[in-house]
Amino acid sequence: MKTYMKLAEELTENTKIVSRDPGDPVEVIAHPEPWKVVGCGNYAAVFLHPDFPDLVVKIYGRNPEGLREEILVYETLGEHPAYSRCYGYGARHLILKRIKGVTLYDCLHKGIKIPETVIRDVDNALSYARSLGLFPRDVHGKNVMLLGGRGIIVDVSDFYEREKCSKWNDLRKAYYRVYLPVFYKYPVKLPYPVLNAVRIGYRWYKKWKRSC
After folding, report:
1. Given a cut of 80, is residue 197 above it in pLDDT?
2. Catalytic residue among 24, 123, 138, 170
3. DSSP class of residue 94?
4. pLDDT digits (tens, 9 = 90+) for 58-75
């Protein structure tokens, strides 16, 4: 682990991440080899080193004050099958257990069936977090992975925010009202432009609803 922690520090020092819009994922402008970018969220990017396939480094591109809160969230959650684990951290990064699954977002793109067990697993995981005094939010299709028929939440960075969030409830409703009766029975591969249009449309709809 000491070797990996040193590599993670070097990665963080030599990586440039920009955030062009708070509502969109950050962008990785530069990073050293042989690290690979395996995901980008609204706050941070996640990197994988080929020699350490079971670990990832999450580097914050904005909202660095949220890193400490995320560390505390992982400490509070402890070991739970529906969450990753934090093994170390630095000024801008976290070292996390790698979840080798497929996001629900990518499941829709690839036509992979999403079983109902995923929804139940996430519901139970959120209830568990609330029982520990946390406030789960920002749980959506890009933050939930399917692995072996089970659901895993891969981003807990906003679990200290007390602001109400309906993203998971909205996704849950869409699953039972649209996905389960239609796309589960007749899976199709949805192009990323279509999925992105739905994401943007949903964001504008929520803004309009709040303004009303």
Report:
1. yes
2. 138
3. E
4. 999 887 778 999 999 999
Prediction pTM value: 0.88
Distance in angstroms (rounded) separating the CA atoms of residues 30 and 145:
26
Cβ-proximal residues to 86 (8 Å cutoff; 6+ apart), any chain: 70, 71, 74, 75, 94, 95, 96
Q: What are the structural domains, with CATH classification, of the chain? A: 2-97 (3.30.200.20), 102-196 (no CATH)
Flag the least confident range among 27-31, 153-157, 158-162, 167-171.
Answer: 158-162
Q: How far apart are CA 47 and CA 57, in angstroms?
A: 5
Q: Which residue's structure tokens are 């505390």?
A: 72
Q: Facing residues of 131 across strands? A: none
For the beta carbon of residue 70, count every other beta carbon within 10 angstroms: 24
Helices (H) and strands (E) in the chain, counts: 6, 10
Number of other residues whose CB lies within 10 A of the CB of residue 191: 10
Q: Which one-letter amino acid corresponds to residue 200?
A: I
Residue 138 among the catalytic residues: yes
pLDDT tens-place string over residues 8-22: 999 999 999 998 887
Evaluate whether 146 touches 117 at the Cβ level (below 8 Å): no
Q: What is the CA radius of gyration of the chain?
A: 17
Arithmetic mean of pLDDT, 128-150: 96
